[in-house]
Amino acid sequence: MVYAAAVMPKVAKDEYDTEKDLEQLAVNVGGCIAWGNAAARLFQSQRFGTLVGISSIAGERGRKGAPVYCTTKAAMNTYLEALRNRLSECGVHVCTIKPGFVDTDMTKGMGKLLWLISADEAARLILKAARAKANERFVPRQWWIVATIIKNIPSFVFKKLNV
Ligand SMILES: NC(=O)c1ccc[n+]([C@@H]2O[C@H](COP(=O)([O-])OP(=O)(O)OC[C@H]3O[C@@H](n4cnc5c(N)ncnc54)[C@H](OP(=O)(O)O)[C@@H]3O)[C@@H](O)[C@H]2O)c1
What we know:
There is one protein chain. The chain is of the alpha/beta class and 163 residues long. The protein has one domain: Rossmann fold (3-Layer(aba) Sandwich), CATH 3.40.50. Helices cover 47% and strands 13% of the residues. The protein has a 4-stranded parallel beta sheet, sandwiched between helices. A two-stranded parallel sheet has the order 4-5. Helix 1 links the parallel strand 1 and strand 2. Helix 1 runs parallel beside helix 2. The longest helix is centred in the first third of the chain and has 29 residues, at 18-46. The protein is globular and about 50 Å long. Bound molecules: NADP nicotinamide-adenine-dinucleotide phosphate. NADP nicotinamide-adenine-dinucleotide phosphate (NAP) binds at residues 4-7, 27, 54, 56, 99, 101-102, 104-107. NADP nicotinamide-adenine-dinucleotide phosphate binds next to loops.
């Protein structure tokens, strides 16, 4: 089972819109938990199955440009890790996918993007990671370099970055 649904609305610099934020939470986190729990029940009873959650590199840090989107992806990472730890005891695998930029409606109009890949290529890499029983996988893999760098940027520097 692959959980891929998410929304990432544009957020203005000075915008704090709770209704919009809670909708993101409902789709990106609530949806993942609802489908994840349903898959977990089935996979646990049959003692096999693979659950893939499409998270994002965005979950690695809280960025100014997308506070709630980043939050939802961080929450997803933690939920999926917990499911993986629970279900590993009965032969079920949970794989967290962290894509960089993929050419879909979500990235339309964003201009030139680093290491942009097609949706087909992303799907191929995601299935490859799931079949290899990866716990977590950046897609494409080189995004781990960016993740490692951004995770280690001190807060006093990260505050000044307009990302
Ligand atoms: N594109 C990127 O660069 C990128 C990077 C990192 C992570 N991701 C993640 O990859 C996943 C797929 O995103 P995408 O790039 O394919 O974006 P997308 O083209 O905007 O597709 C979003 C998907 O979410 C579904 N969805 C949205 N709201 C929903 C709702 N309320 N109920 C059910 N389904 C809903 C949409 O279904 P409908 O088509 O039926 O509306 C669509 O299939 C997401 O989790 C996204 O966060 C994308």
